[in-house]
Amino acid sequence: MRVTPWEVEGKIDYNKLIKEFGTKKIGEELLKRMEKLAGELHVLIRRGFFFSHRDLDKVLEDFEKGKGFFLYTGRGPTGDMHLGHILSFELVKWFQKRFGVNLYIAISDDEKFLQKRLSWEEVDKYAKRNIEDIASIGFDEDKTFIFRDSEYIGRVYKLMLKAARKVTFSTAKAVFGFTNETNVGLSFYPIYQIIPTFFEKKRALIPAGIDQDPYWRIQRDIAESLGYYKAAAIHSKFFPPLQGLEGKMSSSNPRTAIWLNDGEEEVKRKIMKYAFSGGKPTIEEHRKYGGDINVDIPYQWLSIFFEEDDKRLEEIARSYTKGEMLSGEIKMLLVEKINNYLKEHRRKKKVVEKKIRKMMYEGKLAREMWEKSFE
Amino acid sequence: MRVTPWEVEGKIDYNKLIKEFGTKKIGEELLKRMEKLAGELHVLIRRGFFFSHRDLDKVLEDFEKGKGFFLYTGRGPTGDMHLGHILSFELVKWFQKRFGVNLYIAISDDEKFLQKRLSWEEVDKYAKRNIEDIASIGFDEDKTFIFRDSEYIGRVYKLMLKAARKVTFSTAKAVFGFTNETNVGLSFYPIYQIIPTFFEKKRALIPAGIDQDPYWRIQRDIAESLGYYKAAAIHSKFFPPLQGLEGKMSSSNPRTAIWLNDGEEEVKRKIMKYAFSGGKPTIEEHRKYGGDINVDIPYQWLSIFFEEDDKRLEEIARSYTKGEMLSGEIKMLLVEKINNYLKEHRRKKKVVEKKIRKMMYEGKLAREMWEKSFE
User: Fold this and answer.
1) Which of A150, A165, A180 is facing B183, going by the closest CB pair?
2) Do the Cβ atoms of A166 and B183 come within 8 Å?
3) Burial B45-78 (b: 16+ CB within 10 A, else e)
């Protein structure tokens, strides 16, 4: 197992990660408290895909006391988005709906231009396409601000200077794995990543893969000295690639993922062909010994997000484990679920232009953010 | 002798510096060519205070061919300005007037906040006061753009990203003396310093102390690969402090300098008391042996800038060297010249508000610059 912000390898032991990163498990008590406040629990939390946190208890306490909190997430536009990318957006959508809070979504076009060998035109193209996908997910248009780093810099640069003065290159090296050969733009970028956590004088709740946790270490080191709150986080496991439970779904290998713009036939083809199965080699053996849901990717994906109905999921588990349900059948269940999700996504995307305009420029929160300047 | 962008010590051998920095002396031929184009030579050039250059010949060639060039200079707002600070502004004023070109003046509030232990409020205060002094010098209000880095960042950030991708921390360390303990903001700043050299697709001519030359090495390394010109420079010697010819006038020691806001009595008091004299200890000895203009600060200051009349300066040199003119008399000549200069400066400063507005926002060039975005 190897987990850093820039590398995830091997079979992951999540309890060990909690220890190593010094975070906390989302336990029964916290789940109950959240359920009481929200009226329900989102499937991604209920099934434990988001399993660890920092200060989530304080976030809930702030909410209970009427102080509130806000949500912050983002996207680095290096390519089109796949299913693994949308889970945290689905979760913030739920948080926003249930808690009625503001949501800030950073599109880090600057970071990705500095980090990758992409041209500005490419980053720009993906930024626009990613925003279409993200906006289609459906947030409160008056409580959501989607911004491109390169476009919003003028409003945050002074505050960035204040934060930057507190972070040495040495620290950035240790936390982000920078070297002397890192370009000076990228070494400054992490400061921008921190800034949205200062957009309100409340606690920011950030949903992210647990591998991203070190990125917030600097924020938590400097926030209070600048008069802001330490960021809170809720950490997810890694969405497993089609090929099996190790590593994470990767943009660089198209076969490992289902893309948001994959068509119905493509989804079916990929899952039938590539999804790692916990079923037995022959129908006879499968009927006799049953499938293994612990390694079966179709089952895992249904369990993480795509089958929200707990009873139905239980029935699938039972029937697949007993060998009543075949590998091809459970795959088809997933194909259908994903295609329904993507069909709905395509429908929403067709009318997304106005939503983008509101969340980027014209909605209540967006207007407030463009009128402001942070110092 | 020790000359780096962050340290100037000892008695300076300027011919040695030309060799060490790999620049070129401004020779007779170049002086004649400039005089022919400009109709005259500015005192700072004529007397050799600006003595070295990079590509000044190419700048003149571009001008001769009708392609033109532009001027770029700046100010780091760490305190009030002294006489040593205005010389390069006087020179660009002359260049602008004689060649009719655009002038860009960067106020690097970001750099100074990142570099010094000043609060933002202090940097902000000095930025405003420095802009008043600079604008009072008197530039073409439709061909001059004065901008504060922190305010203009939104228009240049994308171009900064492109430049930043070409500069590693390693290079920044070598050129600027950064270390691992340098903050990540300051390590990014040099990119901003480079950007104004890309404001036009022409050659930028930068007047600066020769110690600042290494700062432009990075610009000259990356400019052409980004589709722009290598910056040209015209280098000055160091304006000597009141106490004598070694080192340079320093903001951190108020006694070494005359400030633009020093009153008439203060100017007189400082020069009479602190200006290093090349005169003899007693009047008798002075009458007999004469003064040494080579070390006499009042004579040096008159020669560098404050006595424009060559014949009068020659007469002063003759008479002081012969002992006819006393140390107190040459000092009073300088007091009068400086007080006249500062009186005129104060007069212009009283009506500077409108000029500032034009050069920062409403003049022809300023409006063009605010409408633009650099990529």
Assistant:
1) A165
2) yes
3) bebbbbbbbbbbbbbbebbeeeeebbbbbbbbbb
Whether B110 and chain A come into contact, CB under 8 Å, resolves to yes
- Tell me whether residues A187 and B182 touch, CB distance under 8 A: no
Q: Which residues of B touch A162 (CB under 8 A)?
A: 113, 120
Shortest distance, CA B102 to any CA of chain A (angstroms): 25
> Are A257 and A84 spatial neighbours (Cβ–Cβ below 8 Å)?
yes
DSSP one-letter string for A288-302: HH---TTT-HHHHHI
What kind of fold does domain B2-242 have according to CATH?
Rossmann fold (3.40.50)
Q: How many contacts, defined by CB atoms under 8 Å, are there between A and B? A: 119
CB-based contact (8 Å) between B180 and chain A? yes
> Any CB–CB contact under 8 A between A172 and chain B?
yes
- Domain A254-349 coded CATH 1.10.240.10: yes
Identify all chain B residues contacting A158, using CB atoms and an 8 Å cutoff.
120, 150
Q: Position of tokens 């003396």?
A: B177
For residue A306, give both structure tokens.
């795509």
Domain boundaries, chain A: 2-242, 254-349
Q: Categorize the per-residue pLDDT at A12 as very low, low, confident or very high, splitting at 50, 70 and 90.
A: confident
Residue A6's pLDDT band, with cuts at 50, 70 and 90, is low
This complex has an ipTM of 0.92
Residue B329 and residue B302: Cα distance in Å, rounded? Answer: 13
The pTM for the full model equals: 0.93
Q: Measured in Å, how far apart are chain B's first and last C-alpha atoms?
A: 42
Read off the pLDDT of each residue in B271-280 and give the average, rounded to a whole number. Answer: 96
Both tokens of residue B177? 């003396």
